[in-house]
Amino acid sequence: MIEPSRQQAKRYYRPELDVLRFLAFLAVFAFHRMDYVPTDPVKDLWVYRVCTVGAFGVPVFFLLSAFLITELLLREEAETGQIHVRAFYVRRILRIWPLYFAVFFGLALLNRFVPGVGTDNPLAWLAFTFFSGNWYITFKGWIAGSVDPLWSISVEEQFYLLVPVLAAWGGRKALAVTSYGCLAGAYIAVFLYGLHRSPGDHGEWTNSFVHFQFFAAGTLIALVLRGRLITWSAPVRLLGMATGIACWFGAMLGFQVQSWEPQPTAGGSVAGWLLILLGTCLMFLSMLGMSEHHVPKALAYLGRISYGLYLFHSFVFFLVFEQAKSLLNRVAASLGMREMGRNAFGTIVVLVLSVVVAHLSYRYFESFFLKLKRRFTLVQARD
Known about the structure:
By secondary structure, the protein is an all-alpha fold. The chain contains 15 helices and two strands. Its EC number is 2.3.-.-.
C-alpha cells in the first residue's frame, strides 16, 4: 500500500498533486459558472448537479495544502533539527500575500469604474486585509462574484497562524491533538447548523470551524504516512477517485449538504459532511504516489498556476458574460450557435483566458516573490 518516498530529504515535489490541484480548480470553475450562466435545475438537471457538487473542490485545496505544509515542516525538522517558524511565515507571506492583495484591492479600485466587480465597503476592506473575509461574508453576506472566492484564503491563513508554532513546540503529538480537536470542533459546528436551520444561506459554507476538518485530515495523513507514498495500482486509483466523487454526490443528493442554502437535519448534516471528508481523502490518496511517467506535464503546470487560476477566474467570467455579453452574443450568432452553444463557447473562452492571465501572473509577477521565497526555504518544494 505505501512505500518510502525516493525523493531526497532536501526536496519534496509530487507533480501528481499539482494535477489534483488543477482538477480541484476545474470543479470550482464549474460551480462558479452558475453565477453567470443560468442553469435550470429541472431542464439541465445533471449539469446543475455536477456544477453544484463542484464547490467541494475547495476542501481538496484545503486538505492538499495542509498535507504539503505538514510534510515540509516535518522534513525540515528531520533535516535541520528544528522547525524555523519565522522562515515559515516569510514563505507563506511571499507566496500568498502579493497576488491576494493585488487582486482584492485591484478589484476594489476597478469597482469605481465598473460597479459590481469589487467592493467599496471599508469594513470589507478591513476584513479581507486581516484575513477574516470569510467571517465578513458569514455575517454580512456575499460581496461580488469576482471577490467572493477570496474567502477561502482567509480560512487558510487562519489555520496556518498556529500550525508552525504547534509543530515547533509540540511536534507530531501537538499537531495530532490539534487536528483531532479541529475535527471535533468542525462536527460540533456542523451539528449545530443542522439543529438551527434557517431559510437562505446561513453562513455555514464560509465558517472556518466547518472547514478546519479538511486541514486536520491533511495534517493527519501526513503524520500517518511519515513521508511514504501510496502504491495502489491504476485500477484501484481509478476506483478510489470514482468512489470519492460518489461520496460527494451522496452528500448532496442523499443528505442535502451543499455550499449554499444547505437545509439537512442535524444527523443528515453530520453524515453529509463526513461523506465530503471521506470523498476528499479518497481523491487525495488516489493521486498520491502516482508515477511521474503517468503525470501529463501540461496538467502539472496548470496545477502549478492554480493559485492564479483560482483568484482570476470569477473576474474573467464577469468580463466575458457580463461586460462583453453583447460581443459574445454577436460572435455566437455569427457562428450559428443557440443559447447552449453560446454558453459552452463562452465558458471555453473564460477557461482559456483564465489560463493565459494566470500564466502571465505566475511568470511576470508571482515568480519574483517565489525567488525571494526560496531564500527562506529549507526543504525545496515545487516553487
